[in-house]
User: Which sequence fits this backbone?
């Protein structure tokens, strides 16, 4: 039996578009005995509160029936979508896979384990099934699982989030292979864990696994594909490409020794994050209905890296770099920004903000009545720049990319409505030290993209004379270490002290993180690449007191 | 047996402060046989992802033990907080009520039904209990329930969200009264439903109910208190005040005929929303550690109402009104804004933005190369005003209140980083037609607050000459009707057509709602007063396609 894994890039809510994607891939897989999409593929994952619009779910079923009709001449296909719960109690929907066969929607298979943590909200919409969902196809019994259903094996977790293990139940009910429709978002290094887990499960239960993942960016989430197949000995038998659409067909009767079916997965930590950022940026811009972007170029490392991502995602002709020097901008910064633009082959525009700054100063002279300059005047500059960038965005229909990194966003070293302005925060989940690593990796790939000077000068916001980031922040190596432990690994103050971090520094950093909550609440969506990003997986109160 | 209901206003995360509140109220209730707080009272509801910081939960238990020790001389007290789940599987915590008795934390009672819809995310944190949680106190058996536990009775819902009914199970297990620790956020008109439900349950199961609600604002949520007691015949026996802290003690042996124990609940639709906005604004500002606010005064109805709310919340001496006229601002608008400020007794500051506008125009002349003026130039003005307001906020430590209403936010009739700037969106869940009703109600209370001219002129953003809102929007009566049906009642396009709304108008409005998603993603927290507010209960994708 041949199983086709349709690794597609659906757009959330685009039912006809997603249906067409599925139909086209199913036709390309025409020789297979069963084709399988990723989770909720017809709707695009995550559809979020579109699921609460009853007519969205209704229409998806009309589209599904049309799709079944269109594909009546093909072998059966499993398509992910939400299904109304007809029961008299429970959540309104199931997270289902519909079996299309001979022109009809024959039946559905439902998800058991519903992730409700980090960026996931599935208990908000879905009722779990307690059934073991088996599909008899010819003489083969397939166990149908959806994403999280395979992520609760006792061997994999010190503490399991759920009380049942659908994989074990499927096998005990007679499944001879496990199909899994997934929408598993990218985080750096996750594929290793996925494959180790799939391999372990296949070996433990002595059944092959067919894991189909979504690919593409949807708002803050990037799905990296890399769908894969393991034989019943836990050996990798096939793998789809990362970060692009792909189609693999695997023959259950002959799963081993097919190196040609295994797409390379030789990403470095840098190249993997780079691909995620490029895909996430491209899809955000395109799925919002745009093709061009702009961003402010300061001559610093962050905007340089974001410009390079944008060029890779959209092409140099679709990226506009805007220089907005003030009296505090050094000639070196302008030179570095222009060199970067030259290296990338993008257009630039220079708008000097000095006159506008002066007009603000004049208007505020009276209320500020000679008070000393402080962060207020720095923020005014950042907001003038935000206003200019948004004006260009509005006038010419370009998406503004915001360029702040995770370290800055964590401690609030950024101006709300200023440099935080934009439709997408490309690197807001990339810590500053990783920004440097990515820039160096990028340059090492071939010719110099990020000017060498940018890599070696001290980071500065240039909002006053002789300012550097390190005036008010710990060294980035230390800061990023503390932040990662606190944000991603949930370490407490006491644990940080025990690691040898200086007490006052830890307390200051955590206090800054808390104080910046009101800014982050209004931040642009940012591409998630770590285990815990600010955004939909970080839900902190604003008006609260530290304990 | 006398039961004391401690209706308190905790601050999220403020463990020592909340503990002190509880201790003080418990001492005032010293004659009671049992004192009861609201849900998670020690932590403040909703603690959100603070719950994922293990040391927050640990510290709350240290504080709880201290509290038990401090109150060792009093009768038992039930205190709400989160409790680690020691099981080898399941969510990390329970949503519990801890019984403090004789200086010790004696035991806990756990929540069964975990709301995960609208603004609620409890499945993210909590494991449900399947136990019926009974407390034997002297000769009386009390059924202990937490908030949602009492909201799933078959008689109350066409479709129940959960499969069990803890109230019924508690009664069947022997409970002679039901205690309920709640944190039930305000929405307009909700108290009627709560009391009808409590009355029905009390009568149906023939047991008295003791319902303790939280009071106070926490970010977008306002808790309205109005804790209440029903006897076993379903008659209201006691009610705490709305929108303020209160303490009621009810004697189970003598629950009827105590009119003096029933706080008036004679709110009109307008006065109820007003109280919620005032409380929400006051608590947001204070719980963020501020005492003063500023806002832009345009002479329009929205900023006038928000100024009035701010004055009621914080006192006129703590409110600064900023006028920022441009060449498009009519003398009437300035006059109306000044009249409002006079009526409210607040300070004003006038900053003319014409020179700053001109400096932007000069700098953008070249890139804009003679293109016609459009919404770009309007947004520039709004963002200049946002920048000035934030500059004053930064320099003087004032919280900026943003003044947009729900109708505008729904259709995107507002400028991101412009008039949307601010720490709190006071009326972002109040539709425009309700803004008028509130303003008229306010004036009818006594002397004129909102100048009569403001109530009667056509609404305008004054971002170009001869502009009125109705140039680009349907009449607000129609718009608000469509929006309420779509947003709060989840009606589909087809249902709206069937109601007689013009097809092109409905499609245009829903298209505007979708297009404004990127703005709302970056909106300030707004006080929820309707069944569905934008914010934590509205989770829509940005990069999606309409279906």
Assistant:
């Amino acid at each position: 039996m041949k199983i086709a894994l349709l690794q597609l890039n659906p757009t959330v809510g685009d039912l006809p578009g997603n249906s067409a994607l599925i139909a086209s891939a199913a036709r390309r897989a025409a020789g297979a005995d069963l084709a399988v999409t990723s989770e909720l593929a017809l709707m695009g994952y995550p559809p979020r509160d579109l699921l609460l619009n009853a007519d969205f779910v209704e229409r998806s079923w009309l589209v599904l029936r049309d799709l079944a009709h269109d594909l009546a001449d093909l072998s059966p296909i499993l398509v992910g979508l939400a299904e109304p719960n007809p029961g008299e109690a429970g959540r309104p929907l199931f997270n289902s896979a519909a079996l299309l066969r001979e022109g009809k929607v024959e039946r559905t298979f439902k998800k058991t384990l519903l992730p409700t943590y980090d960026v996931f909200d599935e208990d908000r919409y879905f009722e779990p099934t307690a059934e073991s969902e088996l599909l008899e196809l010819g003489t083969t019994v397939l166990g149908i699982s959806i994403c999280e259903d395979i992520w609760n094996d006792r061997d994999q977790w010190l503490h399991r989030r759920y009380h049942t293990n659908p994989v074990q139940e499927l096998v005990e009910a007679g499944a001879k292979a496990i199909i899994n429709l997934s929408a598993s978002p990218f985080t750096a290094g996750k594929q290793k864990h996925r494959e180790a887990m799939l391999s372990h499960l296949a070996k433990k239960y002595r059944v092959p696994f067919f894991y189909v993942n979504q690919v593409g960016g949807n708002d803050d989430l990037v799905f990296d594909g890399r769908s894969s197949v393991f034989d019943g000995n836990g050996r990798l038998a096939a793998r789809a490409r990362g970060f692009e659409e792909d189609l693999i067909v695997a023959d259950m009767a002959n799963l081993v020794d097919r190196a040609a079916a295994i797409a390379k997965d030789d990403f470095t930590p840098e190249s993997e994050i780079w691909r995620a950022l490029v895909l996430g940026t491209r899809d955000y811009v395109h799925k919002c209905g745009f093709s061009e972007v702009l961003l402010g170029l300061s001559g610093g490392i962050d905007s340089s890296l974001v410009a390079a991502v944008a060029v890779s995602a959209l092409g140099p002709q679709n990226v506009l770099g805007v220089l907005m020097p003030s009296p505090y901008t050094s000639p070196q910064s302008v030179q570095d920004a222009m060199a970067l633009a030259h290296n990338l082959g993008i257009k630039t525009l220079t708008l000097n903000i000095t006159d506008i700054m002066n007009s603000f100063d004049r208007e505020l002279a009276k209320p500020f009545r000679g008070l000393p300059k402080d962060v207020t005047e720095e923020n005014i500059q950042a907001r003038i720049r935000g206003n200019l960038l948004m004006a260009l965005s509005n006038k010419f229909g370009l998406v503004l990319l915001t360029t702040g990194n995770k370290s800055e966003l964590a401690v609030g070293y950024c101006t709300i409505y200023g440099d935080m302005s934009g439709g997408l925060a490309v690197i807001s989940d990339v810590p500053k030290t990783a920004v440097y690593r990515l820039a160096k990796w990028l340059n090492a790939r071939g010719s110099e993209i990020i000017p060498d000077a940018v890599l070696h000068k001290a980071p500065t916001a240039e909002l006053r004379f002789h300012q550097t980031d390190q005036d008010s922040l710990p060294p980035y190596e230390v800061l990023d270490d503390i932040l990662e432990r606190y944000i991603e690994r949930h370490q407490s103050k006491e644990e940080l002290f025990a690691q040898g971090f200086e007490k006052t520094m830890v307390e200051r950093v955590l206090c800054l993180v808390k104080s910046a909550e009101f800014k982050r609440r209004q931040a642009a969506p940012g591409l998630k690449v770590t285990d815990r990003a600010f955004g939909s997986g970080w839900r902190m109160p604003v008006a609260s007191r530290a304990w």
